[in-house]
Design brief:
9 helices, alpha+beta, 307 residues, 4-stranded antiparallel sheet, 29% helix, 14 strands
């Protein structure tokens, strides 16, 4: 198998703030800058998991085409403001949270969040209660997903029929730009340098989003590569099976789990296979942001390793 294709690396990460960064990747074989740049951009914008409000209820309001006594904004304006709220959910299941406010500005930070949901930008305005005696109670449903969810799908999946459904943009990546320049290694001057500028909504860092996008692409291509995946860099035979000891020391990232499951484990300080197999069922259930689907995926993968 040819070894002529260069393996790139991240050579620089320049932070442009909490929600934006420039990532430089080099050296790349000629033409691979466009190939990787386009594929990473598409995955970053479409396939990174995020959280959004999919339905809401305001006490005393039966539909969105109305007003609320003592509130400056009508329900349609409140609905648009709710769509701008940024959450970070650690649950795979829909989470309901409520806020009650009287005679004041109602912002995202007023929601009674729990260990499963965080408000990323608490200053986001939701409603202006300009009557000191007026009280507003809003309950919202926060879900995780990727891409865009139509209002029809949100309506079909509503937990309660009296909730007003919202279309939802789950993607935490708001903008991705890339450019391809020249790179040089020794006498080779016809190489590419890829520069990615990634902006997010604050619920995920640009670097974490980049790594998750790369992991998603690896998962997709690994399935298509089949046994050839194990033979890259070895012209004669497949890589020998690792020993049990080396498997236990293997980083979680190399276990072949989905990007979401791997990230959830790492965020809980489960960094190696040994850390993972040492967990009891109760301990696994207590992991933050680790649902039943992730648990089933992990158990199936550990069973394949035959510990």
């Amino acid at each position: 198998m040819s070894k002529s294709i260069l393996s790139p690396s991240v050579t620089n990460v320049e932070s442009l703030g909490d929600d934006s960064a420039v990532i430089t990747i080099e050296p790349l074989a000629n033409g691979y800058g466009q190939t990787l740049g386009n594929s990473l951009r598409r995955v970053l914008l479409s396939s990174i998991n995020g959280s959004a409000i999919t339905a809401f209820k305001i006490n005393g309001v039966s539909h969105e085409f109305t007003t609320i006594p003592g509130v400056k904004e009508d329900v349609v304006e409140i609905m648009m403001n709710l769509k701008e709220v940024t959450f970070k959910s650690h649950s795979e299941e829909p989470v309901e949270i409520t806020v009650t406010k009287k005679g004041d500005l109602l912002t995202a930070g007023d929601f009674n969040t729990n260990s499963e949901v965080e408000v990323v930008k608490p200053d986001q305005l939701i409603a202006t209660i300009d009557d000191p005696s007026a009280e507003v109670t809003i309950t919202i449903v926060v879900e995780t997903g990727h891409g865009y969810q139509t209002i029809e799908k949100s309506s079909a999946n509503r937990l309660h029929s009296d909730y007003i459904a919202l279309d939802a943009v789950f993607s935490p990546v708001t903008r991705v730009r890339y450019s391809v320049g020249d790179a040089r290694v020794g006498d080779s001057v016809d190489l590419d340098k890829l520069t990615l500028t990634i902006d997010t909504d604050g619920s995920i860092t640009p670097v974490d989003a980049f790594e998750e996008a790369a992991a998603i692409l690896v998962d997709q291509y690994r399935v298509l590569a089949g046994k050839a995946y194990k033979m890259v860099g070895n012209d004669s035979a497949a890589t020998p099976a690792p020993s049990a000891a080396s498997l236990l020391d293997m980083p979680i990232e190399e276990l072949g789990l989905s990007a979401r499951t791997s990230n959830a484990l790492i965020s809980n300080d489960i960094c190696t296979v040994n850390d993972l197999v040492s967990l009891s069922d109760e301990e696994m259930n207590d992991l933050k942001g680790f649902g039943n689907k992730a648990k089933e995926e992990v158990k199936a993968r550990v069973a394949e390793l035959e510990f």
